[in-house]
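Hi L.,

You mentioned the student needs an example of a multi-chain input paired with its predicted structure. This one should do, with 322 residues in total across all chains.
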Amino acid sequence: MERIVFKPIGVIHSPFTEPKGTPIQPAASRGSRGTVEVFSEYAAGLKDVEGFSHIILIFFFHLIKKVSLIATPYLDTEKRGIFAIRGPGRPNPIGISTVKLIGRRDNILEIENVDMVDGTPLLDIKPYVPEFDLQQEFSLGWLEKKIEKLPRAKDDGRFAP
Amino acid sequence: MERIVFKPIGVIHSPFTEPKGTPIQPAASRGSRGTVEVFSEYAAGLKDVEGFSHIILIFFFHLIKKVSLIATPYLDTEKRGIFAIRGPGRPNPIGISTVKLIGRRDNILEIENVDMVDGTPLLDIKPYVPEFDLQQEFSLGWLEKKIEKLPRAKDDGRFAP
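Structure written out for the whole complex:
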């Protein structure tokens, strides 16, 4: 299989207009409000989504110009493999973020803890289900000693200068 | 933006040769072993991944023939919006699963709790970090009363007959 072609199903609106200064994860963006605009042809797929308190947004890091297999993550000073970090400069620049779902008006979802740049193309929405996504015991590799920096961590523009 | 083009970075090998009978989530597949083969041109990106006990695999539901905005999920008997369920027949057929990482030999990752069909194209690997992905308080909509069925839930072939 050579190529996989997707189409945006919507767009994410956020208070962050450029990568620099954007929170690097929802946990670094508590309280930041945004909206998800699902294009009208896909709006029927939103039925029942409002019952979930959180949703997983799958999106395209559309501003990435450069892919690196090795990169320095926001929370570290050492270079790491791209598959051991969450930064956007990935071979397939796909992002996932679990955000709080505040409410729905037709095809518009109001969300909180937004960590995307305004205008980010949306690929998919999945309900957040801890029974599916949560692991009880885990280890965190290089992040083990860095994670306490997370709540204050902002993008410094290193992946999309 | 009209189209977003990705390329597989690898392939997932699993004991499940067809959708029918495949566990519907890693939580329904405890102990099932598989491997992730990352293509050699991307192998450098695996540096440091072995420090993490769990990884999030992002993959393409390549067997899906039919997309439906409304579908009956495996764990329910009522039709729900596709963005309120995890089933594969999505506008962009992207799957995410958190699996246990047993070990790495060069470009091969040995994994446990596999819920993909053998031969599934891999799009991305991210480290599992509960501080990023876990929510402390949540509600589960239609799934609230169905979730206890999860450990025994298998694909009955409804999305890829």
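You could point out the following to them. Chain A touches chain B through 70 residues (CB under 8 Å). The radius of gyration of chain A is 16 Å.

Best wishes,
N.
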